[in-house]
Amino acid sequence: MRQVLPIGAAVSALPLVVEDRTGYRRTSFKHWNVGDLPADGCNTRAEVLLAEAVVYPEIGPGCTLTGGLWWSYYDEREVTPAGALDIDHVVPLAEAWDSGASAWTAARREAYANDQGASASLVAVTAASNRAKGDKDPAQWLPPSADALCRYGAEWTATKLRWGLAVDEAELDRLRDIAAGCGGTDVEFTPAP
After folding, report:
1. Which residue, among 27, 13, 20, has the nearest Cα to 99 in the 3D structure?
2. Tens digit of pLDDT for each residue in 60-82?
3. CA atoms of 50 and 57, how far apart (whole Å)
């Protein structure tokens, strides 16, 4: 059931834990599977690119995308071609592992890594911004564009709530700071199946 909370209340709903990366491997999260529409021949990455295109690309054999235009909200840049974009897990795979996904089944981790059920989970951004972020949480990295801060804080919080993931103390403090400056921002999420 879809829930909408003011950002401050949403941040307060996040459970607090001491995070633990023990045993993490990126391969524990099978990603870029056949996507939501297996018949289209596109994987999750390509489907996210198609969903977020500002100017729709041409789709060639094997779901090769040519042309098109995208907006990377982290750094407020127009981007073309599709190969110049990364698909960012708003809450990185390692961070998800640290905050609860280590206890999930392989199938649930795959569902998380390919989550197109919420627009906040996966976003097309410049490769440079995604690589600068890496596996950092908001206490360690924020988008370079000040205009992106409220959206990013809301999407991070929504993803954590959607998947029942926890936060550590530094992350919670930073999210509270973001929420304090983002009055009027709502966090929308539907708990993952």
Report:
1. 20
2. 999 999 999 999 999 999 999 99
3. 7
Q: What is the pLDDT of residue 162?
A: 98
- The answer to whether 91 and 97 are in contact (CB under 8 A) is no
Q: Give the whole-angstrom CA distance, residue 56 versus residue 2.
A: 29
Span 114-166, pLDDT tens digits:
999 999 999 999 999 999 999 999 999 999 999 999 999 999 999 999 999 99
In percent, the amount of the chain with pLDDT more than 90 equals 98
Q: Which amino acid is at 4?
A: V
Cα gap 9→99, rounded to integer Å: 20
Buried residues in 144-176 as b, exposed as e (16+ CB within 10 A):
ebeebbbbbbbbbbbbbbbbebbbbeebbebbe
Give residue 101's identity as a one-letter amino acid code.
A
Q: Which two tokens stand for residue 77?
A: 């840049």
Q: Enter the tokens of residue 35.
A: 């996507």
pTM over 0.85: yes
Q: Is the bond into 81 cis (omega within 30 degrees of 0)?
A: yes
Classify residue 34 as exposed, middle or buried by CB count within 10 Å of its CB (0-12, 13-18, 19+): middle
